[in-house]
Structure formats: C-alpha cells, structure tokens
Design a protein that fits this description.
The complex is a heterodimer of chains A (286) and B (309).
Chain A lengths: L1 H31 L6 H18 L3 H24 L6 H23 L16 E3 L2 E3 L1 H23 L1 H11 L1 H6 L4 H27 L5 H16 L4 H21 L4 H4 L1 H10 L11
Chain B lengths: L1 H18 L2 H27 L7 H17 L4 H23 L4 H21 L1 H4 L5 E2 L14 H24 L1 H11 L1 H6 L4 H27 L1 E2 L6 H14 L6 H19 L3 H15 L4 H14 L1
Antiparallel strand pairs in B: 1-2
Helix pairs in contact in B: 2-7, 2-10, 2-11, 2-12, 3-4, 3-10, 4-5, 4-10, 7-8, 8-10, 11-12, 11-13
C-alpha cells in the first residue's frame, strides 16, 4: 500500500515539474511556431542558478524566483537577438535553438562541473507528513501544489486578462491578430520570457528531487516533447493532462520495469498518433 | 576541365592509402561513413523537406543489433549484418509511420523524441546494452577471407560500400519516384491533387533513408569495434544534420562535403580544445545565420558568377 501511495505521489510531483516545463514549450510553439529545443537547457540553467543562489542565501523559494527571473532574461535575449532576425524561417530557428542548447550544456559543465549537485529542500519540508499512519514526503506535495497553482494562474492569465486574449488571438489567427493592431512583436517576447521563467523556476524547484547534473537538459527535453505531442500543441489543458499521464507512465515504468521505462514512453505516443494525431486537446488546424 | 578535376579527385581517393599514413587513412574511412550517413539523412531533409532530428536511431540501432548478436549469440558477421539491417529497417518503418502523421516542426519533434527514447533505453537496459560501458570486444568482418583490420583494407571496403550506396541514392533521387518526392516537398497539396499518395512517398523515403542509415551503422561499428549510447544521442543526429545543412541540403555532393567538414573539425578540435559541444553549437548558429543554404550551393554560385565574367 505504502509503495503505491509513494509512487503515485512521485509521479504527481514529476507531473507537476513536467507541466512547468511543457506549458512554456507549448505556449511558445502555439503562438510563435518555434520548437524551442533550448527548453530542456532553460530548465537545467534554472537548476544550476538555483545551486549558486542557495550557496549565498539558503532559501529555495527565493532561489526559484531569482532562477526563474535569470532564465527569463536569458530567454528574452535569445528571442530578441537570435530568433527574431530569423522570423519566418522555422527551420533556422529550431536549428539555432539546438545549437544554443549544445553551447549551454558545455557552459554549465565548465562552470558547475560534472558531478550532480543536490539542492536541499527547505528544512521544514524535509520531514515526511504522517497522515493516518502513512508517510507522505512533504516536499513532493508542495511541488504538486505549486504546479496546480501555476496551472490555475496560467489559465486565469489566458482566459480572463487582456494579454491572454491577445495571446489566444495570436495562436488562432496570426495575420488577423496583426491586422487588428495587437502588438504581436511584444507579445512574442512576453510569451518567450514567460515560458523560460516557468522552465527556469521549474528547474530550481526540481532541484531537491532530481539534483542539478549535466544531461538534465537531455533527460527533460524529450519528456516535454512527448507531453506536448500527447496533449496537443498550444493547449494548456493538454500540457497539464499530458504531463500527469507521462509522469505516471514514466514513474511506474521506472519502478516496475526499470530496464524498459523509456520504451514504455512509446506507447502513449503510438496510441495518440493512431487515434488522435493532433493530440488529446489539440485544436484542428484552421 | 571539370572532368579533369573529377578524374584527379578519383585518382587521389584511389591511391590515398599508399601514402596517406594510418591516421589520415582512418580519418578518411570515418569520413566515408559520416558522408554515407549524412547522404541518407539528406534524402529526407534535402529532397523530402522533412527535417529529422532522430537519424542517430539508425546508426545506433544497427550498430547495437550487430554487436549484440555477435557477442551474445555468437552469430558471425555474414549472418548478423542482414538481421541488423532488416530489424533497423523495420523499426524505421514503424517510426516513419508515427512521425509522418506530422510534417514540418511536428515531424522534427516526433523524430527527436523517438530517437531520444532509444537513447535512454540504451543507457537503462543494461542487461542488453551494457549501459554506460557500451558493448566492446567486437571484430571486423572478413569478406571472402580478407582481413579488414589494416587501415588501408578497411578504407577500400568502406569506400566501395559508400560509392555503391551514394550511387543508389543518386539513382533514387533521379528516378521518377525522386521527382515525386521533390514534388511532395515543394507542393504537397498539388501532388495530392494530381493523385500522388504524399504520405506513402514520404514513408517509403523514410524507410529507404533508414536502411542506408543502418548500413552506415554497420560500418560505424566495424570501424570502432565498440558501441556506446552516445551513438544514439541527439548530438549524433545533430552532427549529421549539420553536415547536411553545412554542405547544402538537396544536393548530392553537399552532405559528403559537409560531413567531411564536421568530422575534420571534430577530430582537429578535440586534439587541441576540449569543448567540441560548444563549437558544434556555435557552428550551427553561424551556419544558420550566415550560410543557410550550405557550402556547395554557395561555391556553385561563386563559380557561376566567376564564369560569367
């Protein structure tokens, strides 16, 4: 019983982290048609920046905020300086993000070295929470809560604010959005920074569970891609549901069939592509 | 003039092992393998307009299959090579079926994700792949009893296979099917309206491209006598794609030139400078920004301009 509860909780917290990563990827792709292959790197930079901040100030939440901010600035520069000049050249943009991801991986290796660096959870969350004789790892519950609050916040942003309405207009019909005077250019930078911030903060928050290590980017990027393929690009709900499905499959796969955990990831992809190629919540392309 | 230059190049390639020295002969063999691999990717990228970031799957899968059959089942090369090729091609048929539900960026993302799943599996499934240690203790085949252990022998073996492969790929591209493929790249909707099955054209190309990727994988494992999960990594796919794009996608010579540039760069740089990944990334960014259509079309344009003067 304890086993199932713990593993379920593990998959829920992984799902929350995947959502922080995939939501930004999905929004960026949906609005800007950029497959941002640096997204795993942004997550990794976040984790490493978190390491450095925690050495100075031992407060994980502050580190997550600052890490998110630092990565948002990096993302904004990337968008303005490298991706913007290639507007309209989707292939060029994706190759540039790929090139940047290699540079970032090597840069992090130079600065932070090759050994995994764990980030410690706040001390008051390190003790397990006892409910009815079952121990819950408190930090993972908090991670899940953060992801849910973020999801609600993003939903509110998209559905109830002016900027959200502009983003939705851009996703649905870019030329028309431009024609009615929506400042698409600023919107692009905003969404890219937002996606980068989520990934960066997600990297810090993931620190106590996954640690910061070289290759974190290459581990996370495919999971985010599979989430987005499964959930449907540009859909927040898709990213949310997809994240938890993939997290459950991956976590239980890793425990029950450790050798083949990755192979099991094929199954949701094959299923969704066979029955619903645009993803669970993807919209019909107009 | 042009034929003279080609003749001189052919002669140079033919006699190179006589004076090249082991290091350069080995480097040349690796270039042939990389060129064959990049050319197979170019069928998709250049002629099909389908940019795959998962091509490492074929080199890795064929290499692992051949290595595993040899080590665990003791199958001789003559028996395990066809099995590796068939298995890899079948997986290419499956991956192609999945990935070709999309085109453009969706195709790129799906191929990337699929290949990364294989990469992760190569690390995790240690009972089969020996994990991070890789599979070692392999040998090179000895076709008709000729040992390929000497650099020169392996050079000619690889050269022969690369020439046959490139010739067959050139035939493929020049055939009516190749014309249909280019049609689906430029005008998929018109091709569909003309009665071509766009999906099928792409899928056949994907499988064919995977087959030649598998051939490159066999040569790769024969050369190194070792296979490691990095063979399947995104970096491996990216190097091949960089070769295609740097040389010039959609030209026959482009990927060969591009793959040679990437490999020479990699070999020289890793001798002096540890940061190959960083350089690979930089070259990617610079090529995309400054030379988006590659070296071969760039040089060809310069040549045409020169003759016009």
């Amino acid at each position: 019983m304890q086993f199932w509860i713990i593993q379920t909780l593990n998959s829920l917290s992984l799902g929350g982290l995947l959502f922080l990563l995939a939501a930004g990827f999905s929004l960026i792709f949906g609005l800007m048609r950029i497959a941002n292959l640096t997204h795993g790197s942004l997550f990794m930079i976040g984790a490493y920046v978190g390491v450095t901040i925690l050495r100075l100030v031992p407060n994980l939440w502050l580190a997550a905020l600052l890490g998110g901010l630092a990565v948002a600035i990096f993302g904004g520069l990337l968008e303005r300086l490298l991706l913007r000049p290639l507007a309209g050249n989707a292939l060029g943009q994706v190759l540039v993000t790929l090139g940047i991801s290699f540079i970032v991986a090597d840069f992090c290796l130079i600065v932070w070295g090759g050994d995994p660096i764990p980030l410690s959870a706040p001390s008051y969350l390190q003790k397990p929470l006892l409910v009815g004789g079952v121990a819950f790892p408190a930090y993972r519950l908090v991670v899940l809560a953060i992801a849910i609050v973020t999801a609600i916040g993003l939903h509110a942003l998209m559905e109830w604010t002016r900027i959200g309405a502009m983003i939705r207009a851009g996703v649905d019909d870019m030329p028309m959005a431009r024609a009615v005077g929506i400042p698409v250019s600023r919107l692009f930078t905003f969404v890219f920074c937002l996606g980068a911030a989520l990934a960066g903060a997600g990297g810090v928050i993931a620190g106590p569970i996954m640690s910061a290590y070289p290759g974190l980017d290459a581990d996370m990027l495919p999971l985010a891609l599979i989430v987005v393929i499964l959930g449907g690009v540009g859909s927040l709900l898709g990213a949310f549901v997809g994240s938890f499905i993939i997290a459950v499959i991956y976590t239980f796969g890793s425990v029950l069939l450790p050798d083949l955990a990755y192979v099991i990831l094929f199954l949701p992809m094959i299923a969704v592509i066979a029955y619903r190629p645009r993803g669970l919540f993807g919209r019909q392309p107009s | 003039m042009k034929w003279l230059a080609w003749g001189a190049l052919a002669l140079l390639v033919a006699v190179f092992p006589l004076f090249g020295g082991d290091f350069y002969v080995n480097l040349a063999s690796q270039i042939f393998i990389a060129a064959l691999f990049a050319a197979s990717l170019n069928l998709l990228v250049g002629y099909g307009g389908l940019v795959s970031l998962g091509h490492a799957a074929w080199i890795g899968l064929a290499a692992y299959t051949s290595a595993w059959l040899y080590l665990r089942l003791g199958l001789p090369h003559l028996a395990n090579a066809p099995i590796a090729l068939i298995l890899t091609t079948l997986v290419a048929a499956l991956f192609g079926w999945i990935a070709l539900h999309a085109s453009g960026l969706g195709f790129l993302m799906i191929t990337l994700a699929l290949a990364q799943v294989l990469w992760g599996t190569a690390y995790r499934w240690a009972s089969v792949t020996n994990g991070d240690n890789g599979l070692s203790g392999l040998t090179r085949p000895a076709p008709f009893g000729m040992s390929l252990d000497k650099p020169a022998a392996f050079y000619y073996f690889t050269l022969a296979i690369a020439i046959v492969a490139l010739w067959l790929m050139a035939r493929f591209v020049a055939s009516p099917f190749g014309a249909a493929l280019r049609g689906t790249r430029d005008e998929p909707r018109r091709m569909a309206a003309l009665g071509h099955n766009v999906w099928l054209v792409r899928w056949i190309t994907f499988v064919y491209s995977g087959f030649w990727g598998a051939v490159a994988g066999l040569l790769y494992v024969y050369y190194h006598k070792y296979v490691h999960p990095t063979t399947l990594s995104l970096q491996s796919s990216a190097e091949a794609l960089l070769g295609v794009i740097a040389g010039g996608a959609g030209t026959l010579a482009g990927p060969v030139v591009g793959a040679a540039i990437v490999l020479i760069l990699k070999n020289y740089v890793s001798a002096y400078f540890e940061r190959w990944n960083m350089l690979l990334g930089l070259v990617f960014v610079l090529i995309v920004i400054f030379m988006p259509d590659g070296v071969v079309p760039g040089l060809r344009r310069a040549w045409v301009r020169l003759r016009a003067k």
